[in-house]
Amino acid sequence: MKFPAMYRRALPAEARIGTWLAPDGWALRRFDWPAAAPARGSILFQGGRGDVFEKYLESFAAWHDAGWHVSAFDWRGQGGSGRLSPDRHVGHVENFSEYIADFRAFWAEWQAVTPGPHVLMGHSMGGHLALRAMAEGVVPDAAVLIAPMLGLHSPIGARWGERLAKFVGRLSNPARAAWKGNERPATTDTREALLTHDHGRYEDELWWQHEKPELLMGPPSWQWLIRAFESTRALRDDARLATLRVPTLLIVAEADQLVSPVAALQVAARLPAAQVLRFGPESAHEILREADGVRDRALAAIDRFLAAHAPGPAR
Q: Which long-range contacts link 96-102 to residues 24+ away (Cβ below 8 Å)?
C-alpha cells in the first residue's frame, strides 16, 4: 500500500508527540497515533540504536490505515529522550538493563490504556530489547522482530569482538566514541549501502536530521558496544527462550552487515512459536525502509501474521 510523501517527511496531524517520565524521572520522547474506533488493536514499535520514530512514519501510516493504534518512544540516550554522554552525538548507555527498565514500565502503562490486542514490534536493537523483555516477563499478544540485533557483526567473531571491546574500553573513558563514522568499522561500504537500497528513503532520514538536528546520533560509545556484546550473548544463551509462547515473526536480511542474520536464525529455531521471513541480497539492514519490492513484501507478511495471531475485533 503506497502513501504520499507527507507520511515520510511530516508528522500526522492526528498524532501526539509528548513526554513520558521513566520511574527514575528521566524524560523520554513518545509518539502516539490513535486509531479510529473500533480500533483493530495497538502496536508499540521500537527502533534501533540511534533511531527516531520519524524514520518509520511511512510504515506507521500503513498500520494506522488498517485500524491500528500506533505508539513508539525514543530510547533513553538518543533521539529526543536526552543524551547520556557529554558528547551528545555519541550513543552511550551504562547498561542495557536501563533500556529494559524503561520499556517494562512504559509497556505496563501503555497496555493498560490502549485497545488490545497488543503487538510488540522492534527493529535492530529494538528487536533485541523486545525479545529480551519478553524473556524477562513481558507478554504481548504477538511480536514482530525486524532485522533483530541478536548478534553483532565482528571481523574477529563475537567472542573475540567482545573481549577486544572490553580491553579497549578499559584503556580510557568508556563513554568515548568507539569509532569516528559510518555504522560500523572495518567496512568500505557507505552508510547508505549498509542501511537500504532505496536512495529516497535514505534521504528521508537526512531530511529529518536537517529539520531536527537535535535528533542526530553518531557512533556508539565503547560502553554501549561492550554492553551490546554482553546482552546479545546472554539472550542467545537464555534458556527462557524455549518457553516463550508468544507468536513471533522474525524478518531477517541474510545480507545484513550490521547485525548477525545467523544469530537471528539460530534464536528463531529455539522459539516455539516463531515464524521466519528471509530476504537475500535485495535487502540491507533497514527492511521497512528498503525499496518497494522488499518493503511491500515485509508489510504484507506482517499483515498476514497479525491477521492470524492478533485479529482484534471485526471492523
A: 96/129, 96/132, 96/227, 96/228, 96/230, 96/231, 99/75, 99/129, 100/129, 100/132, 100/133, 100/136, 101/22, 101/23, 101/24, 102/22, 102/26, 102/28, 102/73, 102/75, 102/76
- The beta strand positions in the chain, using DSSP E, are 16-21, 27-33, 41-46, 68-73, 118-123, 142-146, 248-253, 274-279
- What gap in Å lies between CA 265 and CA 250, rounded to an integer? 8
Mention every residue, 6+ apart, whose C-beta is less than 8 A from residue 190: 182
33 pairs with which residues across the strands?
70
CATH class for the domain made up of 6-309: alpha beta
**Rg value, the chain, Cα:** 18
pLDDT truncated to tens, each residue of the chain (315 aa)?
A: 454 456 799 999 999 999 999 999 999 999 999 998 899 999 999 999 999 999 999 999 999 999 999 999 999 999 999 899 989 899 999 999 999 999 999 999 999 999 999 999 999 999 999 999 999 999 999 999 999 999 998 777 788 888 888 888 888 888 899 887 656 555 557 899 999 999 999 999 999 999 999 999 999 999 999 999 999 999 999 999 999 999 999 999 999 999 999 999 999 999 999 999 999 999 999 999 999 999 999 999 999 999 999 997 866
pTM: 0.94
Place of cell 536464525: 265
Task: Show the beta-strand stretches assigned E in 214-293.
Answer: 248-253, 274-279
- β partners of residue 70: 33, 43
Question: What are the boundaries of each domain within the chain?
Answer: 6-309
DSSP state of 255: T
